[in-house]
Amino acid sequence: MKKHATTVTLMIFAGMVGYWWGDSSAKSPNAPVSAPTIQATDSAAVAQSSIADVLQLAADAKTTMSTNLHDYTARFVKQERSDDGVLGELNEMELKIQTRMRNDSDDAPMRIYLKFISPQSAAGREVMWCKDKYDGQMAVHETAFLLNLKTIWLEPTGIIAMTGQKFPIYEIGLVRLVEQLIERGQKDLDNPDVSVVMSKGHEFDGIQAELIRVRRSKPSGDKDDFKLAEIVFDRERMLILSYRSFGWPEQADADVPDSELPLLESYAYHDIKTNVGLTDDDFDVNNEAYGFP
Prior knowledge:
The protein is an alpha+beta fold. It has one domain: outer membrane lipoprotein receptor (LolB), chain A (Clam), CATH 2.50.20.10. The chain is built from four helices and twelve strands, in the order H-E-H-E-E-E-E-E-E-H-H-E-E-E-E-E. It has helices spanning about 5-15, 50-70, 160, 175-185, and strands at about 45-50, 70-80, 90-100, 110-120, 125-130, 140, 150-155, 195-205, 205-215, 230-235, 240-245, 265-275. This is DUF1571 domain-containing protein. InterPro entries: DUF1571.
């Protein structure tokens, strides 16, 4: 199997915007996205909380996943704002993952398969990455003319693969989402400028989840700073279903409604099915169910 595309193909590929994750076409640099309305059934369902409580919840979720989450499928929806302030397109894809939690030492090789649903320019695109296969390279099957003639192999952290992206492909998934939440939360554990509200009765994909809203009263100055972060948590399955963060208005002390705050990043996992028994065939570019050339 050849693991390098021709020079011409790579030049065409490099000219595209947003690769395995879809186009990062610009909206307005400050385009806001409406924040969700808390769907609590009564005032008793909304309670003040703390970063310590959120960290404990995340730690419990990670422990549960370590014991129970071997693999899963989902419909993953993501949107990110680039470092230069441009909000990329919404990207939707089918997702299959074998987690590293599927052995006793939690160090099994992670495996990922993606197939794009939208935007239309990326529909049908397939991406595969396996820590223990293909020399750690990312396999990309494009649908555009010429690019669909062969599988393109990329380094996950290379310039092409990382164009317009905040994280490499192996940062995707429910486990890493919890770990990132813990890493970020620990920075604010003793921060008096952070407040937390937990709301029960938040509907997400037809289930009753909890909506956790973390709000800063003043900028932190960190690279991953936010004005408001929202976490949707499924306590029954101990899974984080969604994470969104919103930036500051142009004047940090301005009284701006949440619906006008600029979206920084959004990651949501829909239709999650856990421990479905994914096999080696699900992470094989030669699988006849896939379209890798």
